[in-house]
Amino acid sequence: MARDLKLLIAGEWTEGTGDDHYEISSPVTGEHIYSVPKASQQDIDRAVAAAREATEEMRHWTAFERADMCLRIYDLWQPRVDEVARILTLEQGKPLQAESIDDIEESGDYFQIAAEDVKRLSGEYIPTTERNRRMFTVHRPVGVWAAITPWNFPVMIPMEYVGPGLATGNALIVKPPEFTSWALLEMAQVFEEAGVPKGAISIIPGAGDIGEALVTHQGIDAIGFTGSSPTGARIVSQMGLKRSIMEMSGNGPTIVTEDADIVKAAEAAVYGAYYNAGQVCVATERLIVLDEVHDEFVEASIKAADVVKLGDPFDEHTNMGPLNNEATAAKMDRHVADARDRGAEVLMGGGRAIGHPTELYYEFTIIDDVPEDSMVSQEESFGPVLPILRARDDEDAVGVANRTRLGLQAAVFTNDLTKAFYYADRIRSGTVIVNDSTDTWETFQPFGGAAGTDTGWGRQRIEEFTDLQTIVFSLRED
Ligand code: ADP
Questions:
Q1: 234 CB less than 6 Å from ligand 1?
Q2: Which atom of ligand 1 is nearest to the CA of 178?
Q3: Atom of ligand 1 nearest to the CA of 207
Q4: What b/e string do you get for 38-72 counting C-beta neighbours within 10 Å, with b at 16 or more?
Q5: Is residue 177 in contact with ligand 1, taking CB distance under 6 Å?
């Protein structure tokens, strides 16, 4: 039976004051799974006002008090992992055993790490030109954040903002997409139990119009956005002088050189293309293989693809579930058709799998001899596809790799150290991974794109949630 969910606003679970609801079906079963109210402008204003009060309160807490709050959240998080992971699978489609459980568990880690980081977040004592002057810096909370987050990691990505945000005394209004908000709302019960001040976290699911209402709201100081590049560009043009962290699309190249371990490279490439059904900003989106090892690589990747088990994501043997939504499946259809039209060869898959409860189950797809100007090469596909492009030599491979605006995370397979540096020095990408999938991830890895508008995270992620305040003293001249 479908659940009636409530919004979390100003510390209360509420229907809100709007008239509309979103009715959401599962990509796994096609069944109606929940209904969630659509917030009104009045609800948004209330969340913003409560957030302001909460951050004003928390800015006076010590770092150790905020760290303790984060550790309480972390402790309350763990016993709920299995229950929330099941909801995540039902609403998002990712396989329960292979992905959802780890995904929810790892989402809680942000609180533990933020608790550690905030205790070491110190300012500087700065030298001055005047003998009686003393100058130092302290980190202050930025204030009220809107975190606008996507549907591929509907709990983890919000926590990338909420963990370090709360630890530094900010208040956050999280806006997940309306169609992946249940797991997040379910887990959000831990905030109240952990003693998070009322209003420090509000959760308002919704579509782009709710996002826009937050982006343009005068009471919001900063925007955290993870999503597609076109939406990110729109947000930047609308938000005015708000602080922001923008994390957007990737079209990461993976390069396989002549001296690579071809079997390992093929396994990693396949993994990067099927994990979360390819719906990851660091998915293996473009495989660039040097001519000399092309045939060997193609053969190895077809073999490696045996590992993919598409099916019911609640089945423990399944490692790839359905795509999350029709827009993504339709984009896959377009990319495959365009590649075919341009003369590429579909070696495996290339369409929707039949015999499943919805039409969102997509075959694992390998496409060979993909021309560089095809959609599957130029754009982020966000589906289970491995497009293989050829390169004549290293210089050619770098050229192909860099002809994108979406340089988020790249990979190079080589056993030659000099060659690894050759590529790392030339590929314009936020991260370059040597000898592993682009889909390689550490919770607090610095993260962000080159060649695009992406600002990403610095090494000290926690600092991004603070304003640096300088305090200057003029001492009495004795
Ligand atoms: P995708 O194409 O993967 O759904 P989007 O970038 O459209 O990615 O969505 C990411 C997040 O941005 C979602 O929470 C979505 O609702 C939100 N969003 C979409 N359009 C806008 C907008 N114009 N202003 C603010 N947020 C938006």
A1: yes
A2: 16
A3: 16
A4: bbbeebbebbbebbbbbbeebeeeebeebbebbbb
A5: yes
Going by pLDDT thresholds of 50, 70 and 90, the confidence category of residue 453 is very low
For the cut 60, the answer to whether the pLDDT of residue 212 exceeds it is yes
What is the pLDDT, as a whole number, of residue 409?
Answer: 87
Q: Note the pLDDT of residue 441.
A: 82
CA of 65 to the centre of ligand 1 (A): 34
Helical H runs in 275-382?
A: 294-304, 326-341, 375-378
Spacing, Cα 310 to ligand 1 middle (Å): 28
Q: How high is the pLDDT of residue 250?
A: 81
- 456: confidence class by pLDDT, cuts 50, 70, 90: low
* DSSP state for residue 351 in the 8-state scheme: S
Q: Quick one: 3-248+454-470 is in which CATH superfamily?
A: Aldehyde Dehydrogenase; Chain A, domain 1 (3.40.605.10)
Fold of the 253-434 domain: Aldehyde Dehydrogenase; Chain A, domain 2 (3.40.309)
What pLDDT does residue 475 have?
Answer: 96
- Reported confidence tier of residue 144, pLDDT bands at 50, 70, 90: very high
* Burial of residue 470, with CB atoms counted within 10 A of its CB: 0-12 exposed, 13-18 middle, 19 or more buried: exposed
Q: Is the pLDDT of residue 455 over 80?
A: no
Among 148, 179, 231, the mutation site with the greatest number of ligand 1 atoms within 8 A of its Cβ is 231
Q: Is the CB of 211 under 6 A from ligand 1?
A: yes
Indicate if ligand 1 lies below 6 Å from the C-beta of 212: yes
- Asked if the model's pLDDT at residue 117 lies above 60, the reply is yes
Q: Ligand 1 within 6 A of 235 CB?
A: yes
* Positions marked catalytic: 247, 281
Ligand 1 atom index nearest CA of 149: 14
Question: Measured in angstroms, how far is the CA atom of residue 215 from the centroid of ligand 1?
Answer: 11
CA 88 → CA 2, 130, 151, 205, distances in Å? 15, 59, 10, 15
pLDDT at residue 5, rounded to an integer: 98
Give me the residue spans of the domains in the chain: 3-248+454-470, 253-434
In the reported structure, the alpha carbon of residue 175 is separated from the centroid of ligand 1 by a whole-number distance in angstroms of: 10
Q: Are 200 and 51 in contact (CB under 8 A)?
A: yes
How many A from CA of 271 to the centre of ligand 1? Answer: 27
Residue 66 has pLDDT above 70, yes or no: yes
CB atoms within 10 A of CB 455: 17
Mean pLDDT score, 213-242? 95
3-248+454-470 shares its CATH topology with 253-434: no
Tell me, what DSSP letter sits at residue 292?
G
